[in-house]
Every structure is written in structure tokens, then in C-alpha cells.
Amino acid sequence: MTALLKARGLRKTYATRRGGFMRAPTRFAAVDGVDVTLLRGRTLGILGESGCGKSTLARLVLGLAEPDAGTVNLGGAAMPRPDTPEWRKLRTRLQLVQQDAAGALDPRLPIRAQVAEPLAIHGRDQAAADAVLSSVGLNRAMGARFPHELSGGQLQRVVIARALALDPEILVLDEPVSALDVSIQAQIVNLIADLQAARGLAYLFVSHDVNVVRHVSDRIAVMYLGRVVEEAPAAAFGERARHPYTRALLSSVPVPDPAHRRAGVPRIGDPPDPSAPPGGCRFHPRCPHATDLCRAEVPPLRSLSAGHAAACHRIEEITKCA
Ligand SMILES: Nc1ncnc2c1ncn2[C@@H]1O[C@H](COP(=O)(O)OP(=O)(O)OP(=O)(O)O)[C@@H](O)[C@H]1O
């Protein structure tokens, strides 16, 4: 199957906020050498804790941020620089759905007008707004309402409708259900799946929530401090996950305390500071299997079996073969 989007070796650095007066600013890599391949009708899930670089990766894939290194290729064309006419044209094929639906909408405009806006900007028939609103389960009467008259789930439907208005090929969904009540999350996740099936969309689905990512994804890449530590078919997650970090994430899922589960934080060691990643394997300070080699050398992401890769020096010793 040919890829709709291929990103290779993406790297993005930021200045640390801890520089302080008279100190030379230092930089850290929020995303450090990440590849992304998106296929028509398929979902790549990006899973990881807060601060691991998921949103930065999403912005790089959308061309909203310029990488320090690496390339994004969309249907054979290189991603143009942000805010150029070429970029705006290409961006119609690639849309973002964010977590903060209320913040993404204009409180002063009825929702139909907001869904019609991208159509107007690109000189397309604004009548398409009604059809796209209907495809996310919102009728004409709903289209006349203002954002403050809608529930959180309805607002997220509007944001999805607006992202779909220009009939894109790819949606980047950044924590699209994290702000919603659990009961509403399932409805929106199902809607997202139905829209993919109906339109053949490719999804990059970013979330800290293991259950949600496993439910929606065909493949899952687990990120830790800017790097992918494991990538595998979603079906291989669970028993067949190999990396100690993935296993820790999975073991943190069914816990009695829902606040803990929500945060998606594995119960191993302290969460790291993304702006000061440790040397060697970045996971080594929290890893029960770490050795001197792990402290000294970065483990490459290497293939373990067909479609399954992980970055761990000791993976063969510490896990059974998948
Ligand atoms: N524009 C920026 N300038 C400086 N640092 C940034 C910027 N954007 C993100 N960062 C830092 O980069 C790191 C990765 O952030 P990012 O938002 O990509 O992670 P994330 O996994 O999406 O986390 P979250 O779920 O909390 O948003 C964090 O330490 C964050 O503070």
C-alpha cells in the first residue's frame, strides 16, 4: 500500500525555559529522529506521557512547525515552508483536530458559519457545510446554534466537521477525546472510526490514553522523551509488547484510581524532565533492567519481527520473542 504521508528523521529543538539571566541558552530535542508513515484508511497511534513530544510531532507532520532536521513528504511532494501559498494549498489535504474544541471555535459565530468558513476561504460551495455537519451527527437546527449552546461532545463534532469540510485525506487528531467525559469519549471515538471507514481517511492519532489508542489504531508508536521506543501493530500491544516502557504503560492501565489512569503515568520512578533528557537510553533512570550499556549508549530502534521494532539493548534478554 502506498503511503499518503512519509516523514523521516524528524527533529525539533526548543530553548530550555530554565536558562536564566546571564546563562547561555541551551536547547533540547522535543522530537529526536522520528519517522511517521500514514496509509489511506489506516490509523497510526502515537502513545506517550505528557511532555514526550507528541504535540510537537503532530505540528511537524502538519507543517505548522519547521523541523531542525528531517523531511515530511505528502503524496510525493515535500512539505513547503509554513505560511507560504504552497503550504496553504497542501494543508487542505491535511487537517488538525485538537483537544480543546471550545478554544478552537469562535464564540461569536454560529457553528454552521464556522464549518462553512474554510469552504469560503478556498472558494468552494458553502452548501457542503450542511452535509458535513450531518455526517458528524449534527442537524440543521444545531448548525444555527452558537458554541456556548453546545455540549463538549457536540463541540468536538463541530471541530471534526470543520476539519472535514475541505475533504482532506489525512486528519491529525491531537488528544481528540481527552477533555471529554468517558461516556462521551466512546461516542466520539466511534464517530472518528466511522468517518475513517466512510472516507478512507488516514489518521495520526495522538494520545496518552493506552485504551483509546489501542482501540482506534492499526499501528502504534510509543514515544519516550522525543523518541519512538517501540512501534508495532495494535494487535501486538498487550501480551506481545516488548519494550520495558511500553510494558509499564500497559500495566498502568487498569488501576483503581481513575485520576492515575487518566494521567497515563506508569508507576515506575518519577516522570522525567523533557528539557533535560538523560544520556544513553533515555528511559534508563526508570528502567528496572538498566545496565552500564544503557546508561552509555542510545539503543537504536531495530526490527524484532515483521512490522515490530523496539529500541532497547536488552530486549532479547528481558522479554520472550513475540
Ligand atoms: N514552543 C515551545 N517552546 C519551548 N518548549 C516547548 C514548546 N512546545 C513544546 N515545548 C516543550 O517540548 C516538550 C514536548 O512538548 P509536547 O507538547 O510536544 O509534548 P506532549 O507529549 O504533547 O505533551 P502534552 O500532552 O503535555 O502536551 C515539553 O517539554 C514542552 O514543554
Automatic annotation (TrEMBL):
One of its GO terms (cellular component) is plasma membrane. It holds the Pfam family ABC_tran. SUPFAM superfamilies: P-loop containing nucleoside triphosphate hydrolases (SSF52540). The keyword NADP does not apply. Keywords: ATP-binding, Nucleotide-binding, Transport. GO terms for biological process: peptide transport; transmembrane transport. One of its GO terms (molecular function) is ATP binding. Gene3D superfamilies: P-loop containing nucleotide triphosphate hydrolases. PROSITE patterns: ABC_TRANSPORTER_1, ABC_TRANSPORTER_2. It is found in: Cell inner membrane. It comes from the Bacteria. Belongs to the ABC transporter superfamily. This is ATP-binding cassette domain-containing protein. Transmembrane segments: none annotated. It is a peripheral membrane protein. InterPro entries: AAA+_ATPase, ABC_transp_ATP-bind, ABC_transporter-like_ATP-bd, ABC_transporter-like_CS, Oligopep_ABC_C, P-loop_NTPase.
